[in-house]
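Hi R.,

Here's the chain you asked about this morning:
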Amino acid sequence: MNKIGRDGLSRLRNSLLVPGFFVALALLTAAAVGPARADNARRFDGSWVVRTSAEEGKCNKNFDFKLAVKNGKVTYAGYWPVKAAGGISKLGLVRMTLTHGQRKVTATGLAEGDQASGDWSSPQPKCNGSWLARRA
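And the predicted structure, written out as tokens:
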């Protein structure tokens, strides 16, 4: 019989238990989230009305416009030739880019339920501000 000692046995047991605990936790989390994954991807789907507020820089206009979300992906739902890319993660994290001609706006934020808010910035003209959105 090999002499490991009490400390060695304790370290061996802990080295086996800790990874096992994390594997079990990961499996439980995956099982709990798995069936709802499709629903989570669509939980922010629908039409959203967005209101911007210019706060710093050479942008002196505020805009109201509509976006559509489908399977977490954002598209522009208005009449102007605007391209929207990005989306809302299943956790509600918003990251998108709106492009109109040579102008580009990057927006980030958080969506919760039927509301969302965050910040936006534009490199040309250099300005930034905040935005609020609500499900239409």
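The chain has a mean pLDDT of 79.

Let me know if you need anything else.
M.
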